[in-house]
Amino acid sequence: MKIQLRGIEMAYDESHNGEIPLLLIHGFPLDRTLWNSQLRALNARVIAPDLRGFGESEMPSGAATIDTYAEDLRALLDALNLKHAVVAGLSMGGYITLAFYRKYPEMVRALILANTKAGADSADGKKGRDDNAALAREKGAAAVGEKMLPKLLTPKTAGERPQVVASVSAMMARQSINGVVAALMAMRDRPDSTPMLAPISVPTLIITGAEDNLIPPKESELMRDNIPGSKLVVIPGAAHLSNVEQPEAFNRAVNDFLK
């Protein structure tokens, strides 16, 4: 489905497997098809949009911030007449999830933070964003995806599940250069969300992959230790895309949480 909001056309998928609205926010440089294994397996009213500049959603000229994506998603929920939702994000989607809670806490029924972290980029991290933006401008989104792919999946998946590798590679390769560059700059300049963790007052589930080397499990442990009452699930046999590599374990964790 597509909808006009905030000057862009946004694409999204929706399924009705339960009463609770669940907003799924994809990571970088991906799109809503990241959630194909969740769309009909989660016991919720699942809403999975393409962020601006990704998938089938438009990217207007100009920069974006992490707050820009959160504001887009607020507009989507408003357009769907939803007063609140469980908000879930993976990786960059987790940065946006935290921004959404900071801006619109009254709309958040619960949080799911998957393969993400609260801290801002280090100096080396910022340089990496700039390097990837230069690579995208010079050689396209596929070059960025090719560079990232070894960090997203476990060696076992890379060696034994070619269909998963091909699907993730294709997803990254089809993203727009403008969308990729804008997101890199938004992530580079995002604020440190660590100070906002302790005041979080909604149920929070944290998920990570035991073999996530891009955002190591220690980052998830830090969030668990700082968010009151939060629960951490570490999924074996998964790296950064835990929902793709181990969808049954991921879906079970989310459905147990939704109960």
Description:
With 259 residues, the chain is an alpha/beta fold. Helix content is 43%, strand content 18%. The protein has 10 helices and 8 strands. Strands 1-2-4-3-5-6-7-8 form an 8-stranded mixed sheet, with helices on both faces.
Summarize this entry quickly.
The chain is of the alpha/beta class.
C-alpha Rg, in Å? 17 Å
User: Quick one: biggest sheet?
Assistant: 8 strands, mixed
Give me the secondary-structure category: alpha/beta
Estimated helix fraction: 40-55%
Distance between the termini: 28 Å
Pattern of helices and strands: EEEEHEHEHHHHHEHEHH
Overall average residue pLDDT: 97
Uncertain ranges = none
Give the strand tally. Answer: 8
Strand adjacency order, main sheet: 1-2-4-3-5-6-7-8
- Shape label: globular
Strand content: 15-25%
User: Number of helical runs?
Assistant: 10
What is the strand and helix layout of this fold?
Blueprint: E1 2-5, E2 8-16, E3 21-25, E4 45-49, H1 66-79, E5 85-90, H2 92-103, E6 108-114, H3 123-139, H4 141-152, H5 155-160, H6 162-173, H7 177-188, E7 204-209, H8 217-226, E8 231-235, H9 242-245, H10 247-258
Parallel strand pairs: 3-4, 3-5, 5-6, 6-7, 7-8
Antiparallel strand pairs: 1-2, 2-4
Keywords:
single chain, 259 residues, alpha/beta, eight-stranded mixed beta sheet, 10 helices, 43% helix, 18% strand, globular
